[in-house]
Every structure is written in structure tokens, then in C-alpha cells.
Specification:
Blueprint: H1 3-29, H2 48-53, H3 56-67, E1 70-75, E2 78-84, H4 86-95, H5 108-113, H6 124-139, H7 148-165, H8 174-189, H9 199-214, H10 237-261, H11 270-278, H12 290-321, H13 323-336, H14 352-365, E3 374-375, E4 380-382, E5 385-387, E6 392-396, H15 398-401, H16 445-462, E7 463-467, E8 490-494
Helix pairs in contact: 6-11, 7-8, 7-16, 8-9, 8-12, 9-10, 10-12, 12-14, 12-16
The structure holds protoporphyrin IX containing FE.
Length: 499
């Protein structure tokens, strides 16, 4: 090549490279106007390293102190807006519910595994119809009605029977609690409860335990889906995917069996009710496609088991750590219910100490600190800032539950913080938003509250709960990286004046 042409060629190449570089820098560093404030980030990866370093709720506590109730992180190309504190959460999820009720697209669990179907992962009209229909089908089987109490009590009796069989010996009741809680949702959704020694059920619960301990809502995979392409399985996503499919296989089999035996004159359970509705709608209605039914059933089954079981386990752990609280609770049960019958929901309004206790367990247990992820389907104007379309949005429930201005010394376990001098609830308990808020507030709140009440009060009414080794109390630290209590043993010693 001639020298002149070479020089021209090189100049063009350099020019193109500089232009590309400038475009790249602009692409990477461009910041839409009016974004919520954010800490300094790294080139290209933004704030991903911060999220990899610590639990999201811990990071968010630090950032809220510096940047206020609404701040923003950049995860690669995606903005992640975190909303903190009671006021900002209510402004967003209640007052601007139209804007703040969609799930994000692009999350591994919601979009890749659940394909944005079912109740938990879908958005817009599809979500509204699936959620409304699911609630209607659940109501046919007592959900939200007084009749549900009988179903839960039946399970409580079976649960207490197994506890009694241990004769006060040290026992790890974690699996038993999961079985009892899961059986309630199984009886509603699948039409049948399982025996406690049923091998198929035991396997399923082991899968659920695994699923919960690995849940990637909290982890970075949710916001950085490409992490799944990394070799090995450092953050457990491959294992999670395998377990997810195994649970789905179980549900698929249940639905197939229900289809085979469906009798519209005898609707047995939630699945039957859903299938009956399907026959009233057009064949291609997406709410009734097989995948949407499977994922909806799976949502109820998974969300209905791990959360309530973990809260029950936390409650027992706190009762072991605080025998004085246990005595006070038993005193209330004894004066309101006595020992001759099971507690009933009618008793609950007369049991402020129980309500204060379970509220504090829920606050400190903090089992869903950052809730489930939301997404911005369009640019959202919020408190004078712009949340760009496509952003992830976090309802940071932890920011309320652990807020020292609302709950002084938040690390302390203290049911009295909800009670006035007269021993009655002050209304503060309503600020403990463990079930989230707004349009997507937990669908199973009333069932969860009913189960917690009947299981815990019946247990404390009949048994003294004592640590397996009084000199070595089980830890109050959760499973590392998760919000579940670590497995523990305790002794349930039968009281002489049992019901
Ligand atoms: C102590 C027990 C429970 C806790 C702490 C809890 C907490 C939560 C939270 C924080 C959310 C996220 C709400 C949001 O997106 O802002 C949620 C959603 C949900 N929960 Fe629960 N939950 C519990 C029990 C249950 C039970 C027993 C069921 C089943 C019947 C259930 C079914 C659901 C469903 C289906 C959703 C998704 C709602 C939607 O996206 O529209 N949960 N729950």
C-alpha cells in the first residue's frame, strides 16, 4: 500500500475507533434526567459489585442513611430503584398503585423460569385476572371464611399428636412444622392432606426446603440474570433450576390426575375449580393455558409453605430464648381460652399479648426483607423524580421493620413495643408490613395469620417449650444468605392440665 493511502486508512480507523469509544462511553455513562440519587458506581457494571458484597437489606440500610428514602442503583444497563420507609412505600404502592403493581421482565426466576405467568410473576390484565380467579377458587374452599378454621384445626391436632409422641425428648420440628403448614394448602389446592410419613410428600418438602434456602429473589441472579452462564454453580442457580423443575413436575402430575378425574358436579379443590372455569372460557384464553395453571398452583404451594413455616419456627425459637414471654403468653391463653378446648379465632381479639408477640416475631424474623421485585412498565413520575421505563423497583420492607425511629432498638425482641400501659394494642402493630402493601399485598395473609395463631397458641397451651440443652440455646442467626432460622431441636413437655 502507498504511504498516503496507509495514512488515510489509519486516520479513518482511528476516527472510527474514537467515535465508537465515545458512543460506548456515552452508552455506559448516560444518566436519564431526574433519576433518584445514587452512590458512585463502576464503569459498565455500575453498582453490581456492591450487591455482590453484602445482603441487599444491609446495603440498602447504609444507602438510605446517605441518599434518603428513594435511591437508585445501576446494575449493568438496568436501573434498580429502592423505595424505603413507611411514607414513601405508601406513596408508591398505595397512592400510585397503577404505576407500582407490575413485576419486572428479565428476572431469572420470574421471567425465565415462570415466564411471567401465574400469580406471583405476571403483570397487567393477565395478573389481575389470574389473581382474581385464584382468590375466587380459593374462597370456594374456605379461604378468607370462618370454615377454614376447621380445616386448619384438623391439621393442628395431627401436628400436636406427633409432638406428643416425642414424650418431651429433644426433637427437630422444622420438617413437622413445614408438613403441617403445607398440608393445609395441599388440602385446599390438591384436595387432600398427606400422612406425615408419606415418602412422596417427604421428598416434596425436601425440595421445597432446598428451593427456599436457595431462593434467588434476594440474590443478584434476580437482577443480573446472565450470572447463570458462569461456569460451575457458585450461587446455586443451576441447583435452584433443577429443584424448581422437580416441584413443577409434581404439580404437573397432580393437575394431569385432576383432569383425568374431573367431575364438574363434584368440585373437590382449587385445581378442580380452576379447570371448571377453564371449560367456560375460550380455548386460547391465556389465563387457562396449562402453564398458567401450573405456575399459579405452584405459587400457592410454595408461597403458602415456606413463609408460614419459617415464621412458626422463628416463634418457637424466640419462646425458647425468652421463657418469661412464654409464661406470659400461656397465662393469656389460659385466662381467655382455658385448658378444656382449642383456641379459636373468636378468642384472638381478646389476646393482645399473642398479637404483640406474633407481630414482633414477624418483624424480627424479617423473612421477606425486600419483598418480591417490581418493574416500571413506563416512565414513572414519583416524588419529583423519574423512574425510567424498564427499571427494577424494590419495596424495601426491611426499611420499615428495622427502622429505629419507628421501632427503637430494632435488634431487640420486645413484644411490649406494641402494647400500651393498659396491656392493649396501640395500633403500632399495623405498621409491621411483613405481608407488604398495595395491590400485590400477600394473597395468603389471612390464611397465614390463622395458621400461626392456631398452631402456636395450641402448642403453648399444652406444652412447655424448653431448649434441648439449657446451656446451649439454638442460635438466633438465620441460615447464611437466607432469612430462615437454622435447624434446631427443642423439647415439648406436656403440661398436666391439657385440653
Ligand atoms: C407468614 C407468612 C407469609 C408472609 C410473611 C408472606 C409475605 C409475602 C410478601 C412480602 C409478598 C410480596 C408482596 C409484594 O409483591 O409486594 C407475598 C406475596 C404473595 N404471597 Fe405471601 N406471605 C406469607 C404467606 C403466604 C401464604 C400462606 C400464601 C398462600 C396461600 C401466600 C401467597 C402469596 C402469593 C400468591 C403472593 C403473590 C401476590 C401477587 O404477586 O399478586 N403467602 N407474600
Amino acid at each position: 500500500m502507498e504511504l498516503d493511502s496507509l495514512l488515510v486508512f489509519n486516520a479513518v480507523t482511528v476516527g472510527v475507533c474514537v467515535l465508537l469509544l465515545m458512543l460506548l462511553v456515552r452508552w455506559v455513562t448516560h444518566r436519564p434526567a431526574n433519576l433518584p440519587p445514587s452512590p458512585p458506581g463502576y464503569l459498565i457494571v455500575g453498582h453490581i459489585p456492591l450487591l455482590l458484597k453484602e445482603k441487599p437489606e444491609d446495603l440498602y440500610r447504609e444507602l438510605r442513611a446517605q441518599y434518603g428514602d428513594v435511591f437508585c442503583l445501576k446494575l449493568g444497563r438496568t436501573y434498580s430503584v429502592v423505595i424505603n420507609g413507611c411514607d414513601a412505600l405508601r406513596d408508591a404502592f398505595v397512592k400510585q398503585g397503577d404505576d407500582f403493581s407490575d413485576r419486572p421482565s428479565g428476572s431469572y426466576l420470574l421471567s425465565y423460569l415462570m415466564k411471567n405467568k401465574g400469580i406471583v410473576a405476571s403483570s397487567g390484565e393477565h395478573w389481575k385476572r389470574t389473581r382474581t380467579l385464584s382468590i375466587a377458587c380459593l374462597r370456594e374452599f374456605g379461604f378468607g371464611k370462618k370454615t377454614l378454621e376447621g380445616r386448619v384445626l384438623e391439621e393442628v391436632e395431627a401436628f400436636l399428636g406427633v409432638i406428643n409422641e416425642q414424650n418431651g425428648k429433644p426433637y427437630n420440628a422444622n420438617r413437622l412444622i413445614e408438613t403441617a403448614v403445607s398440608n393445609v394448602i395441599c388440602s385446599i389446592v390438591f384436595g387432600d392432606r398427606f400422612e406425615y410419613d408419606d415418602d412422596k410428600f417427604k421428598k416434596l418438602l425436601a425440595l421445597l426446603e432446598k428451593l427456599f434456602s436457595l431462593i434467588p429473589f434476594r440474590g443478584c441472579i434476580n437482577v443480573i440474570p446472565w450470572l447463570r452462564y458462569f461456569p460451575g454453580d457458585l450461587i446455586g442457580i443451576k441447583l435452584f433450576t433443577k429443584v424448581f423443575h422437580a416441584v413443577r413436575d409434581f404439580i404437573q402430575e397432580e393437575i394431569a390426575e385432576h383432569k383425568r378425574t374431573l367431575d364438574e358436579g363434584n368440585i373437590r379443590d382449587f385445581i378442580d375449580a380452576f379447570l371448571r372455569e377453564k371449560s367456560k372460557h375460550e380455548l386460547n384464553d391465556p389465563v387457562f393455558d396449562d402453564f398458567n395453571i401450573e405456575i399459579s398452583v405452584m405459587n400457592l404451594f410454595v408461597a403458602g409453605t415456606g413463609t408460614t413455616a419459617a415464621t412458626t419456627q422463628w416463634a418457637i425459637l424466640y419462646l425458647l430464648h425468652y421463657p418469661d414471654i412464654q409464661i406470659k403468653l400461656r397465662g393469656e391463653i389460659s385466662s381467655v381460652v382455658g385448658t378444656g378446648r382449642y383456641p379459636s379465632l373468636n378468642d384472638k381479639p381478646n389476646m393482645p399479648y399473642y398479637q404483640a408477640f406474633i407481630t414482633e416475631v414477624s418483624r424480627k424474623g424479617n423473612i421477606a426483607p425486600v419483598g418480591l421485585p417490581y418493574g416500571a412498565k413506563h416512565d414513572i413520575q414519583f416524588r419529583g423524580m423519574t423512574i425510567p421505563k424498564g427499571s427494577l423497583i424494590t419495596a424495601n420492607l426491611d426499611s420499615v421493620l428495622m427502622d429505629p425511629t419507628m421501632f427503637p432498638d430494632p435488634a431487640k425482641f420486645d413484644p411490649n413495643r406494641y402494647l400500651g400501659n393498659d396491656g392493649q394494642l396501640t395500633g403500632k402493630e399495623k405498621q409491621v408490613l411483613t405481608f407488604s402493601l398495595g395491590r400485590r399485598v400477600c394473597m395468603g395473609e389471612s390464611l397465614a395469620r390463622l395458621e400461626l395463631f392456631l398452631i402456636l397458641t395450641s402448642l403453648v397451651q399444652r406444652f412447655d417449650l424448653v431448649p434441648a440443652d439449657p446451656d446451649d440455646l439454638p442460635t438466633l442467626l438465620p441460615v447464611p444468605g437466607a432469612t430462615l432460622p437454622q435447624p434446631f431441636e427443642f423439647r415439648a413437655v406436656l403440661k398436666t392440665n391439657k385440653a
